[in-house]
Automatic annotation (TrEMBL):
<keyword id="KW-0963">Cytoplasm</keyword>
<keyword id="KW-0547">Nucleotide-binding</keyword>
<keyword id="KW-0648">Protein biosynthesis</keyword>
<dbReference type="InterPro" id="IPR045864">
    <property type="entry name" value="aa-tRNA-synth_II/BPL/LPL"/>
</dbReference>
<keyword id="KW-0067">ATP-binding</keyword>
<comment type="similarity">
    <text>Belongs to the class-II aminoacyl-tRNA synthetase family.</text>
</comment>
<dbReference type="Pfam" id="PF13393">
    <property type="entry name" value="tRNA-synt_His"/>
</dbReference>
<protein>
    <recommendedName>
        <fullName>Histidine--tRNA ligase</fullName>
        <ecNumber>6.1.1.21</ecNumber>
    </recommendedName>
</protein>
<dbReference type="InterPro" id="IPR006195">
    <property type="entry name" value="aa-tRNA-synth_II"/>
</dbReference>
<keyword id="KW-0436">Ligase</keyword>
<dbReference type="InterPro" id="IPR041715">
    <property type="entry name" value="HisRS-like_core"/>
</dbReference>
<dbReference type="InterPro" id="IPR015807">
    <property type="entry name" value="His-tRNA-ligase"/>
</dbReference>
<dbReference type="Pfam" id="PF03129">
    <property type="entry name" value="HGTP_anticodon"/>
</dbReference>
<dbReference type="InterPro" id="IPR036621">
    <property type="entry name" value="Anticodon-bd_dom_sf"/>
</dbReference>
<dbReference type="InterPro" id="IPR004154">
    <property type="entry name" value="Anticodon-bd"/>
</dbReference>
<comment type="subunit">
    <text>Homodimer.</text>
</comment>
<feature type="region of interest" description="Disordered">
    <location>
        <begin position="1"/>
        <end position="30"/>
    </location>
</feature>
């Protein structure tokens, strides 16, 4: 059997070629739809003042471990380690974009830029997760970060921009779940409370959660084990929001106040737990029925401690990312069709072999004004039209000996059937006027 792509990866195929409807056990992504998600995000985020940044897809292992955090599933179970000859795996394929962006911010002195600095990026991320629908090992994110401001206004603007991007894509059913995970001291108190609450019932916890009880009890709340979830509701565990200190509570009230004023809708989620360790205060996720309750379209939050964790000065920051593949699943579920890539305006073909070069030349010339393609071999007139239609062309241009002698093409509008002679010299002007 021919070689296949690794589990948990996808091919992004051109329009019309994916055959995804006929293949039942493989899901491919449409490269054009994917690009349009990125393009829409670029438009919305650029209007919001964000600048594009790209960082390497592999980073020092230490950056990932310190950035994402030692108690996370990502660091404990899902890292792709990079080996090359003579090396022992000191690099990790990035599982997310934030740690690398903050590293780049510190390393390149971006602090000198107008503050706060808004950055956005998009690209592949890697997590060795259990593969299922919408859960891949190589997936892609659009990521937005604002570095250098602690103000609640920045959090609210970030959430608004995230909502703007999905709305601009035509998605209607995405809901923001908003919460706060407080300051580190608040979380300390909450974790103490959770340890006290769960310890008498340790034997009922899943193995993973027994481990979490020690390292980061909050993560138990996020457990995928049904037994854990039953225990949580039986015990009536209080949410993180009940443990917010004064400063974090005031900040959260401000964020909500701005969103309410602007009419940005959200559902309060008093017990939100994010899967990364760097968050403080505001935390949110974007959910959609089409991708299931357990998986988010996107997520974000404030991460004021990350820069210092990476060896830089204390730098307040907030940001979010969404998964492009999951956005495409949600768009599919809502039946939103992103436009397909258009075919050529004109398909040029020679009717005899001695004129194939001329046909090509006409197409090359037409490319100054439009998308033009040509046949590499001479075709019979009927086949010219067939080939032009297969490519989705608007016009077919034919060159036989008559046309070649008079330096004309016969141009046929494939939908109306209207046919005319156009001088090769006038073709570009005609195409511009009749696109
Ligand atoms: P995250 O919640 O880990 O946050 O990931 C953000 C989004 O990436 C998820 O909501 C999901 O759509 C997508 N995603 C994550 N894992 C997978 C996967 N295995 N397969 C498909 N899609 C996936 C972050 O990554 C943070 N860096 C977001 C952030 C930016 N926080 C502050 N700034």
């Amino acid at each position: 059997m021919a070689l296949q792509r690794p589990k948990g990866t996808q091919d992004h195929l051109p329009d019309g070629s994916s055959g995804s409807h006929s293949r039942t056990n493989r899901s491919d992504t449409r490269a054009e739809a994917f690009a349009q998600v990125v393009e829409t995000a670029r438009r919305v985020l650029t209007r919001g003042g964000a600048r594009l940044i790209q960082t390497p897809i592999f980073e020092e292992a230490d950056l990932v471990k310190r950035g994402v955090g030692g108690s996370t599933d990502i660091v404990r179970k899902e890292m792709f380690t990079v080996h090359y000859f003579g090396d022992h795996g000191g690099f990790i394929l990035r599982p997310e974009g934030t740690a690398g962006i903050v590293r780049a911010y510190l390393e390149n002195g971006l602090k000198q830029w107008p503050s706060p600095l808004k950055l956005w990026t998009h690209g592949p991320m890697f997590r060795a997760e259990n593969v299922q629908k919408g859960r891949l090992r190589q997936f892609h994110q659009v990521d937005y970060e604002v570095i250098g401001a602690a103000d609640a206004l920045v959090d609210a603007e970030a959430i608004e921009l995230m909502v703007q991007v999905v709305q601009a894509l035509g998605l209607k059913g995405a809901r923001v779940k908003l919460g706060s995970i407080g300051d580190p001291a608040d979380r300390g108190h909450y974790n103490d409370y959770l340890r006290e609450t769960f310890t008498p019932h340790t034997e009922r916890l899943s193995d993973d959660s027994k481990d979490r009880l020690d390292r980061n009890p909050m993560r138990i709340l996020d457990s995928k084990s049904q037994g854990d979830q039953t225990l949580i509701s039986e015990l009536g565990v209080k949410p993180m929001l009940d443990f917010l200190g004064e400063a974090a509570a005031a900040h959260f009230a401000q964020v909500r106040g701005y969103l309410d004023t602007w009419g940005v809708e959200y559902d309060l989620d008093p017990s939100i737990v994010r899967g990364l360790d760097y968050y403080r205060r505001t935390a949110w996720e974007l959910h959609h029925e089409g991708v299931g309750a357990k998986s988010a379209l996107g997520g974000g939050g404030r991460y004021d401690g990350l820069a210092a964790e990476l060896g830089g000065p204390e730098t307040p920051a907030v940001g979010w990312a969404f998964g492009i593949e999951r956005i495409l699943i949600a768009l599919d579920a809502e039946g939103v069709q992103l436009p397909e890539q258009a075919g050529p305006l004109v398909f040029v073909a020679a009717l005899d072999p001695e004129h194939t070069g001329l046909a090509a030349q006409v197409a090359l010339q037409a490319r100054q004004v439009a998308h033009a393609e040509f046949a590499y071999r001479a075709l019979k007139p009927g086949n010219v039209f067939k080939e032009a239609e297969r490519r989705g062309a608007i016009y077919a241009a034919l060159i036989g000996s008559d046309e070649a002698a008079s330096q004309n093409v016969t141009l046929k509008h494939l939908q109306t059937g209207e046919q005319r002679r156009v001088a090769i010299n006038d073709l570009n002007a005609f195409l511009l006027e009749h696109p």
